[in-house]
Protein backbone atom coordinates (compact mmCIF):
# COMPACT_ATOMS: atom_id res chain seq x y z
CA UNK A 1 0.00 0.00 0.00
CA UNK A 2 1.01 3.63 -0.36
CA UNK A 3 0.12 6.54 1.89
CA UNK A 4 -1.72 9.65 0.75
CA UNK A 5 0.61 11.73 2.92
CA UNK A 6 4.35 11.84 2.24
CA UNK A 7 6.87 9.60 3.94
CA UNK A 8 9.73 11.62 5.40
CA UNK A 9 13.30 10.42 4.96
CA UNK A 10 16.23 11.70 7.00
CA UNK A 11 19.54 10.85 5.36
CA UNK A 12 18.09 10.77 1.85
CA UNK A 13 21.24 12.10 0.17
CA UNK A 14 23.37 9.25 1.54
CA UNK A 15 23.67 5.66 0.35
CA UNK A 16 21.33 4.08 2.89
CA UNK A 17 18.70 6.82 2.94
CA UNK A 18 18.93 7.02 -0.84
CA UNK A 19 18.12 3.33 -1.08
CA UNK A 20 14.99 3.96 1.00
CA UNK A 21 13.95 6.77 -1.35
CA UNK A 22 14.52 4.50 -4.37
CA UNK A 23 12.35 1.76 -2.90
CA UNK A 24 9.55 4.15 -1.89
CA UNK A 25 9.45 5.85 -5.30
CA UNK A 26 9.33 2.43 -6.96
CA UNK A 27 6.13 1.80 -4.99
CA UNK A 28 4.61 5.11 -6.10
CA UNK A 29 4.94 6.69 -2.65
CA UNK A 30 5.48 10.42 -2.33
CA UNK A 31 8.64 11.24 -0.40
CA UNK A 32 9.74 14.25 1.61
CA UNK A 33 13.53 14.44 2.02
CA UNK A 34 15.08 16.39 4.86
CA UNK A 35 18.28 18.01 3.55
CA UNK A 36 20.68 20.61 4.85
CA UNK A 37 21.69 21.97 1.43
CA UNK A 38 18.99 21.80 -1.28
CA UNK A 39 21.48 23.15 -3.82
CA UNK A 40 23.83 20.17 -3.51
CA UNK A 41 24.05 17.82 -6.48
CA UNK A 42 22.57 14.92 -4.52
CA UNK A 43 19.62 17.01 -3.30
CA UNK A 44 18.95 18.39 -6.77
CA UNK A 45 18.97 14.85 -8.12
CA UNK A 46 16.26 13.91 -5.64
CA UNK A 47 14.21 16.95 -6.61
CA UNK A 48 14.49 16.03 -10.28
CA UNK A 49 12.86 12.70 -9.43
CA UNK A 50 9.88 14.34 -7.78
CA UNK A 51 11.03 14.18 -4.19
CA UNK A 52 9.90 17.10 -2.03
CA UNK A 53 12.89 18.80 -0.44
CA UNK A 54 12.72 20.52 2.93
CA UNK A 55 15.64 22.23 4.65
CA UNK A 56 16.12 20.76 8.11
CA UNK A 57 18.90 20.22 10.61
CA UNK A 58 18.82 17.48 13.24
CA UNK A 59 20.30 19.94 15.73
CA UNK A 60 17.53 22.53 15.15
CA UNK A 61 14.14 21.72 16.66
CA UNK A 62 12.36 24.48 14.80
CA UNK A 63 13.50 23.17 11.43
CA UNK A 64 12.21 19.69 12.25
CA UNK A 65 8.82 20.38 13.78
CA UNK A 66 6.82 21.79 10.87
CA UNK A 67 7.92 19.33 8.15
CA UNK A 68 7.08 16.38 10.42
CA UNK A 69 3.52 17.43 11.20
CA UNK A 70 1.73 15.95 8.21
CA UNK A 71 3.79 12.89 7.32
CA UNK A 72 2.53 9.33 7.21
CA UNK A 73 5.80 7.91 8.55
CA UNK A 74 9.45 8.78 9.07
CA UNK A 75 12.62 6.91 8.14
CA UNK A 76 15.53 7.84 10.37
CA UNK A 77 19.17 6.85 10.29
CA UNK A 78 21.97 8.32 12.37
CA UNK A 79 25.73 8.41 11.97
CA UNK A 80 28.64 8.64 14.38
CA UNK A 81 30.93 10.14 11.75
CA UNK A 82 31.95 13.69 12.49
CA UNK A 83 33.80 15.58 15.20
CA UNK A 84 31.30 14.79 17.96
CA UNK A 85 31.29 11.03 17.28
CA UNK A 86 28.88 8.75 19.09
CA UNK A 87 27.74 11.41 21.56
CA UNK A 88 26.63 13.57 18.64
CA UNK A 89 24.90 10.61 17.03
CA UNK A 90 22.88 9.86 20.14
CA UNK A 91 22.05 13.51 20.73
CA UNK A 92 20.80 14.04 17.18
CA UNK A 93 18.80 10.83 17.12
CA UNK A 94 17.12 11.61 20.43
CA UNK A 95 16.35 15.14 19.23
CA UNK A 96 14.63 13.74 16.12
CA UNK A 97 12.72 11.24 18.26
CA UNK A 98 11.39 14.04 20.43
CA UNK A 99 10.50 16.15 17.39
CA UNK A 100 8.59 13.20 15.90
CA UNK A 101 6.67 12.84 19.15
CA UNK A 102 5.79 16.55 19.25
CA UNK A 103 4.59 16.39 15.64
CA UNK A 104 2.52 13.28 16.23
CA UNK A 105 4.33 11.18 13.63
CA UNK A 106 2.36 7.92 13.58
CA UNK A 107 5.28 5.60 12.82
CA UNK A 108 9.08 5.80 12.72
CA UNK A 109 11.37 3.26 11.08
CA UNK A 110 14.88 3.55 12.50
CA UNK A 111 17.90 1.90 10.92
CA UNK A 112 20.13 0.92 13.81
CA UNK A 113 22.68 -1.93 13.81
CA UNK A 114 22.59 -5.66 14.42
CA UNK A 115 23.34 -6.43 18.05
CA UNK A 116 22.51 -2.97 19.38
CA UNK A 117 20.20 -4.41 22.00
CA UNK A 118 22.70 -7.00 23.23
CA UNK A 119 25.12 -4.82 25.22
CA UNK A 120 28.11 -5.21 22.92
CA UNK A 121 30.05 -2.29 24.39
CA UNK A 122 30.91 -1.12 20.87
CA UNK A 123 30.58 2.69 21.05
CA UNK A 124 28.59 3.23 17.83
CA UNK A 125 26.32 0.29 18.66
CA UNK A 126 25.64 1.74 22.10
CA UNK A 127 24.85 5.21 20.71
CA UNK A 128 22.30 3.69 18.34
CA UNK A 129 20.82 1.75 21.24
CA UNK A 130 20.26 5.03 23.09
CA UNK A 131 18.34 6.32 20.08
CA UNK A 132 16.33 3.08 19.91
CA UNK A 133 15.35 3.42 23.55
CA UNK A 134 14.25 7.03 23.23
CA UNK A 135 12.20 6.30 20.13
CA UNK A 136 10.45 3.41 21.88
CA UNK A 137 9.56 5.73 24.76
CA UNK A 138 7.93 8.47 22.69
CA UNK A 139 6.67 7.24 19.29
CA UNK A 140 5.52 3.99 17.59
CA UNK A 141 8.74 2.57 16.16
CA UNK A 142 10.00 -0.26 13.99
CA UNK A 143 13.68 -1.08 14.39
CA UNK A 144 15.77 -2.36 11.50
CA UNK A 145 19.13 -3.74 12.63
CA UNK A 146 21.37 -4.31 9.59
CA UNK A 147 24.39 -6.56 9.81
CA UNK A 148 27.77 -5.94 8.09
CA UNK A 149 27.34 -3.91 4.91
CA UNK A 150 28.53 -5.70 1.77
CA UNK A 151 29.45 -2.24 0.52
CA UNK A 152 32.31 -2.22 3.02
CA UNK A 153 34.08 -4.56 0.60
CA UNK A 154 33.50 -2.38 -2.46
CA UNK A 155 36.78 -0.39 -2.29
CA UNK A 156 38.71 -3.65 -2.49
CA UNK A 157 37.03 -4.88 -5.67
CA UNK A 158 39.39 -3.52 -8.30
CA UNK A 159 37.44 -4.17 -11.48
CA UNK A 160 40.29 -2.87 -13.64
CA UNK A 161 42.78 -5.49 -12.44
CA UNK A 162 43.38 -8.96 -13.87
CA UNK A 163 45.89 -10.51 -11.47
CA UNK A 164 45.29 -11.95 -8.04
CA UNK A 165 42.85 -9.99 -5.88
CA UNK A 166 43.47 -9.97 -2.15
CA UNK A 167 40.67 -9.02 0.25
CA UNK A 168 41.84 -7.84 3.65
CA UNK A 169 40.11 -7.12 6.96
CA UNK A 170 41.14 -7.32 10.62
CA UNK A 171 39.18 -10.50 11.30
CA UNK A 172 40.21 -14.18 10.98
CA UNK A 173 39.35 -15.82 7.67
CA UNK A 174 37.40 -18.66 9.29
CA UNK A 175 34.98 -16.44 11.23
CA UNK A 176 31.48 -16.30 9.73
CA UNK A 177 30.04 -12.82 9.27
CA UNK A 178 26.45 -12.05 8.42
CA UNK A 179 26.09 -9.32 5.82
CA UNK A 180 23.52 -7.33 3.86
CA UNK A 181 23.41 -5.07 0.80
CA UNK A 182 22.44 -1.44 1.36
CA UNK A 183 19.86 -1.70 -1.42
CA UNK A 184 18.09 -4.39 0.61
CA UNK A 185 18.07 -2.29 3.76
CA UNK A 186 16.21 0.31 1.72
CA UNK A 187 13.74 -2.25 0.43
CA UNK A 188 13.08 -3.57 3.94
CA UNK A 189 12.63 -0.04 5.27
CA UNK A 190 10.16 0.84 2.52
CA UNK A 191 8.14 -2.27 3.29
CA UNK A 192 8.02 -1.37 6.98
CA UNK A 193 7.15 2.27 6.24
CA UNK A 194 4.25 1.26 4.01
CA UNK A 195 3.01 -1.57 6.24
CA UNK A 196 3.56 -1.09 9.96
CA UNK A 197 2.66 -4.72 10.64
CA UNK A 198 5.30 -6.09 8.24
CA UNK A 199 7.90 -6.51 11.00
CA UNK A 200 6.29 -8.67 13.62
CA UNK A 201 7.53 -7.74 17.08
CA UNK A 202 8.72 -4.34 15.89
CA UNK A 203 12.39 -5.23 15.30
CA UNK A 204 14.37 -7.32 12.83
CA UNK A 205 18.07 -8.01 12.30
CA UNK A 206 18.70 -7.97 8.53
CA UNK A 207 21.08 -10.14 6.50
CA UNK A 208 21.23 -11.62 3.03
CA UNK A 209 24.23 -13.91 3.50
CA UNK A 210 26.53 -15.48 6.07
CA UNK A 211 30.07 -16.36 5.02
CA UNK A 212 33.55 -16.62 6.42
CA UNK A 213 35.91 -14.19 4.74
CA UNK A 214 37.70 -17.15 3.14
CA UNK A 215 34.38 -18.15 1.60
CA UNK A 216 33.67 -14.55 0.63
CA UNK A 217 36.94 -14.43 -1.30
CA UNK A 218 35.93 -17.59 -3.17
CA UNK A 219 32.56 -16.05 -4.13
CA UNK A 220 34.18 -12.82 -5.27
CA UNK A 221 36.74 -14.68 -7.36
CA UNK A 222 34.05 -16.80 -9.02
CA UNK A 223 32.08 -13.73 -10.09
CA UNK A 224 35.09 -11.70 -11.22
CA UNK A 225 36.77 -14.63 -12.94
CA UNK A 226 40.13 -13.93 -11.33
CA UNK A 227 42.08 -15.57 -8.51
CA UNK A 228 41.03 -14.12 -5.19
CA UNK A 229 42.13 -14.89 -1.66
CA UNK A 230 41.60 -13.45 1.79
CA UNK A 231 44.32 -12.14 4.07
CA UNK A 232 43.56 -11.55 7.73
CA UNK A 233 45.08 -8.41 9.20
CA UNK A 234 45.88 -7.78 12.87
CA UNK A 235 43.35 -5.57 14.59
CA UNK A 236 46.18 -3.16 15.37
CA UNK A 237 46.01 -1.87 11.79
CA UNK A 238 43.07 0.18 13.03
CA UNK A 239 45.47 2.28 15.07
CA UNK A 240 43.79 4.21 17.88
CA UNK A 241 40.25 3.69 16.58
CA UNK A 242 38.89 1.95 19.67
CA UNK A 243 35.39 1.87 18.22
CA UNK A 244 36.35 -0.12 15.14
CA UNK A 245 38.71 -2.31 17.14
CA UNK A 246 35.87 -3.20 19.49
CA UNK A 247 33.61 -4.09 16.56
CA UNK A 248 36.11 -6.36 14.81
CA UNK A 249 36.92 -8.10 18.08
CA UNK A 250 33.18 -8.60 18.63
CA UNK A 251 32.91 -10.30 15.23
CA UNK A 252 34.97 -13.17 16.66
CA UNK A 253 32.48 -13.77 19.52
CA UNK A 254 30.38 -16.14 17.46
CA UNK A 255 27.50 -15.74 17.09
CA UNK A 256 27.93 -11.99 16.91
CA UNK A 257 25.24 -10.88 14.50
CA UNK A 258 22.04 -12.90 14.87
CA UNK A 259 19.96 -12.07 11.81
CA UNK A 260 16.47 -13.31 11.06
CA UNK A 261 17.05 -14.60 7.53
CA UNK A 262 13.45 -15.77 7.11
CA UNK A 263 11.94 -12.40 7.99
CA UNK A 264 14.56 -10.58 5.92
CA UNK A 265 13.50 -12.62 2.88
CA UNK A 266 9.84 -12.03 3.68
CA UNK A 267 10.48 -8.28 3.63
CA UNK A 268 12.79 -8.44 0.60
CA UNK A 269 11.97 -11.53 -1.49
CA UNK A 270 14.92 -10.94 -3.86
CA UNK A 271 17.41 -10.14 -1.08
CA UNK A 272 20.98 -10.33 -2.38
CA UNK A 273 23.58 -12.82 -1.29
CA UNK A 274 27.23 -11.83 -1.73
CA UNK A 275 27.44 -13.40 -5.19
CA UNK A 276 24.48 -11.37 -6.47
CA UNK A 277 25.83 -8.20 -4.89
CA UNK A 278 29.27 -8.59 -6.47
CA UNK A 279 27.61 -9.23 -9.84
CA UNK A 280 25.62 -6.00 -9.42
CA UNK A 281 28.74 -4.03 -8.54
CA UNK A 282 30.58 -5.49 -11.52
CA UNK A 283 27.78 -4.60 -13.93
CA UNK A 284 27.54 -1.09 -12.52
CA UNK A 285 31.28 -0.62 -12.90
CA UNK A 286 31.22 -1.81 -16.50
CA UNK A 287 28.38 0.56 -17.32
CA UNK A 288 30.08 3.59 -15.73
Automatic annotation (TrEMBL):
<dbReference type="InterPro" id="IPR036291">
    <property type="entry name" value="NAD(P)-bd_dom_sf"/>
</dbReference>
<keyword id="KW-0521">NADP</keyword>
<dbReference type="Pfam" id="PF05368">
    <property type="entry name" value="NmrA"/>
</dbReference>
<dbReference type="InterPro" id="IPR008030">
    <property type="entry name" value="NmrA-like"/>
</dbReference>
<feature type="domain" description="NmrA-like">
    <location>
        <begin position="4"/>
        <end position="258"/>
    </location>
</feature>
<comment type="similarity">
    <text>Belongs to the NmrA-type oxidoreductase family.</text>
</comment>
<dbReference type="InterPro" id="IPR051164">
    <property type="entry name" value="NmrA-like_oxidored"/>
</dbReference>
<protein>
    <submittedName>
        <fullName>Uncharacterized conserved protein YbjT, contains NAD(P)-binding and DUF2867 domains</fullName>
    </submittedName>
</protein>
Amino acid sequence: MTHTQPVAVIGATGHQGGSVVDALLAEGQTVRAFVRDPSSASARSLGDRGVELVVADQEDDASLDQPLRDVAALFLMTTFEGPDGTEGEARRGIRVADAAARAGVPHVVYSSVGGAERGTGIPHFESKRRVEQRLAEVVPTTLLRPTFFMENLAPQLDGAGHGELVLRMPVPGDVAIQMVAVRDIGAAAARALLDRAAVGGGAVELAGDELTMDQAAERVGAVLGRPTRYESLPVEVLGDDEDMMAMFRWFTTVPAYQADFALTRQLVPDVRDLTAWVADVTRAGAAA
